[in-house]
Amino acid sequence: MKNRLRYSLLFLWMLPLAFAHAQTVVSGQVTDSENNQGIPGVNVLIKGTSNGTITDLDGHYQLTASSEDDVLVFSFIGYESQEVRIGNQSTLNVALDPSLTSLNEVIIVGYDDKKESELTSSVTTVSARQLKDVTTNNVGSMLQGKVAGLQVVNSSGVPGAAPEIRLRGVSSINASQSPLFVVDGIIGGNYDPNDVESITVLKDAAATAMYGSQANAGVIIVTTKRAAAGKTRFDGKVTVGVRTPYFGTMEMMNGSQLYNYQKEFYRDYNTAVTDNSYKIDLLKFYSERPRTLRDQDFDWLRTIFGPAPVQNYYFSASGNTEKHDYYVGMSYYREKGTFLNTDYQRLNLRGNSTYHFSDAISLTNNVNVSANLGKSYDYMDIYYAYLNLPWDNPYDSLGHPVYVDGNSSFRWWSRDKVNPLHTINNSTHTYKGGDVNYDLNLNVDITPWLTFASTNRAAIGFSKGHNFFSPLVAGQYHGTGYLAEDVSLNYGGVSNQLLKFNFQLGDHNLNGLAGVAFQGGRYETLGLAGRGLPQGLQTPNVISSNQVVSGNYQKDILQSFISQVNYMYQEKYFLTGSYRIDGSSAFPPTNRSAGFPAVSAAWLMSKEAFLQNSNLIDNLKLRLSYGVTGTQDIGASRYLGLFALTSQYNSMVGAIPLQLPSPNLTWESKYQWNAGIDLGLARRVSLTADVYHNATRNLLLQVSQPLSVGFEQRWDNVGEVINKGVELGLAVTPVQTPAFAWNADFNINVNSNRLQGLPSDIIRTGSWGISQIYRNGGNLYEFYIPKWLGVDSQTGAPLWEEVLTDEAGNVTGRQPTSDYAKATPQEVGSALPKFQGGFNNTFSYKGLSLRVNTYFLSGNKVFSNNLRFVLNDGHEPYYNQMVLPEGRSIWTQPGDQATEPSPQNAANSTETSSRYLMDGSYFTIRNVALSYEIPKAFVERLKLQSLVVSLTADNVYTFTNFVGQDPQTTITPNVYTTPGVSDFKYPNNQQFLFNLLFSF
């Protein structure tokens, strides 16, 4: 018995050794064949399995293979892939040939991945190498100028603010136009920009239809970093720098400039003269404006705004063993606001691991934990920063901000009797939040041709906002104070269960997938606000008056069936078809489900015999696609008849009608055509061109109702938005030597937008009477305001255009008028750009690299609303005014060709009109990065694997004719904002950073 036990133990001890003997550990380096530099991020995969790794910053890798017959596949964007049999080699070095048309690179598309050569749809991938020097804290800014057709607008410089993103124009009136984000193959989710490995943008329906009703505005797929090669590897990044506010052309007058400017407006009419000439009453001016004011010069703008530090620390560990791949990353980001007392902090932790039970079964866990907190601001304090006069001193003798109101004993020159510095010191605007996402993915190769893939995510998030004004502040909250708090909680999950198949029969390949998807979530909010706070307390239980309590609860469910089939013949002819059925709780039972089909085809002509041996053309592919996507983004319960509860009837609770039912409400759907060509020449030039036609039908709108109904509007499906456009992407390598390389890429998108099928004109009016009209044959976001004709040269009066019509409404003539009440609103331009794009260059010399990224946009109109205050024609002498580079042109006498009316004859001159409508075109140097990779010999002395230092500058300079703060303004309509309207916003920032990247 003892001998049997001894032999059994000996067998168990030797079994791992025998198993280890059957394994082969392979390591090596992947380099560029032209400059012998190591290539980071290369995919190294054992052919026919999911076992693989990626190279480190120096191109090194290590993995374990099961036999000498295994074949390693090396692939990376921008290089030709290679397949190498392991044999008896333990060290396997590979040199990849550069190619701008790497057709074997694997691209994540939809719920699957494809080689680039197999793509039949319009897709753009931004690789890790292109993102290497990007220092922004969000993915949107990373993509600006790098993807044709992608409009990225940084509409605010608030710490932590994310840009607004649009893909191929705006295709809906009420539905969200932000692209769908997919993180690691699952819809939604959070991520740290430091963890991003690559980004793929899906543009046409053939690529996006797999995501159905959530992909109406396009899809952006974010792939995060995973395990690096071999033993545990550590990577770190340290970023420190400074941000400065960018005011555009909004340079405000100093004390002397304002004094001289106001002197011009102290005029009395000379009653003996009939031609409206005037004289300056200097005695009156000096009696009311002492000469000492010229020397009083407080700079409100640069006191409330100023330079602010920014810092980012990132550290990760990754590695793999025979069975296990793992990656853990952590980062801390802090951005002090350029506005006083504003701040943003974010702490992020991400981990992923994959355990390979065998070559056929693997289990992946991903977890992301994110927490943030910050300090915000009150809009009115920005308003005062621009408009308060430089003649006011906001500090007392001890240097403390003084309290100011209408009863102050000292003279306060500014119109509003408020010291914003005092308000900022006596108010608090904080927020905090957190998110947790957990993914569990299972991959099982059932047979050599059939795989089961299960991807699942559970998510929970919360946020809390706190807005407080002390009773000490001036204005409406003086003596009472104000407190508002709101909390929100959201939680839900996503689950996709798919079967994937892949058949190969001779020259024929058939692959695809089928499965189901479920997505559900709940969103809860609770808010309270009120006044009557005792001094020193900021808790809700001490609110004594004007108490308001609000809340919301919303539940959403989306169930889907997903299918796709791909056919390939001789790796030259490709055909793809997909169909998705979505069922949403946002629609009535009769229309709860909708189908979204797509079909696409491609012909890889460069594989044909007549081009296969061409020395010039190394890639030529034609693509054609058609598909349908939809949207359910109208909010919950739009189809129901709703009632609101009230206690206004004898203090008893009652119900009053709130919303008419819409029992036939159905899906808003986008029908998309796309044709494209991909061309590669001499391994130095890559060209991609696409034309598209997107028609969004059955728009979800609130349609006017007859007066007899008792309601003004009801939700219905009417109208159509059409976007047509052309996209061009060009990448070239003008110079490539062993020591020096120059890579350049250029992209441009030209888009036109048109409305049709609306039952009547829709006019939306925002703040200050700024209106936009939606009319058949017109554009979205078309400004509908009176047309400014300038200044009457004889009287100095402002002029607008009056449109004359007959009884039938037909235009019979046009004439100038100085009576604003007679000025006729007209279509004067759209906030949508006609074209946009980017031009990016990279220059590399040995270990030194210089990147310059630019972005341009043209053909749009921006309403510069703040000009009505800072160019107010003397209407409001207690607002500070803007300095014009070319000086002022004020009417003074008959015959003057002036741009500003006479102050005595300028009634209503600052009313809403095209006077403040500007050309929103601009060209910006978005990012400049200079980096240097420290030589290997020195780095090894520091016990490091790599060390890179870099200097970066963001928002370096903007070239524009725009007059105002910034042509980059919001493109999202809501209750508070109108697309294309620039107001006193939190300015964007210029950013200058030092970066240190290292690994060991």
Automatic annotation (TrEMBL):
Topological relation to the membrane, as annotated: Multi-pass membrane protein
Stretches for region Disordered: 891-912
A biological process from GO: siderophore transmembrane transport
Keywords noted in UniProt: Cell outer membrane, Membrane, Signal, Transmembrane, Transmembrane beta strand, Transport
A single Gene Ontology CC term: cell outer membrane
Record flagged with keyword Transmembrane: yes
Major subcellular site: membrane
Residue stretches making up the TonB-dependent receptor plug domain: 117-219
Molecular-function GO term, any one: siderophore uptake transmembrane transporter activity
Domain of life: Bacteria
Entries under Pfam families matching the protein: CarbopepD_reg_2 (PF13715), Plug (PF07715)
Compartments, record wording: Cell outer membrane
Signal peptide: 1-22
Entry-linked PANTHER family: HEMOGLOBIN AND HEMOGLOBIN-HAPTOGLOBIN-BINDING PROTEIN 1-RELATED, TONB-DEPENDENT OUTER MEMBRANE RECEPTOR
Family membership noted in the UniProt record: Belongs to the TonB-dependent receptor family.
Protein name: TonB-linked outer membrane protein, SusC/RagA family
UniProt source species: Catalinimonas alkaloidigena
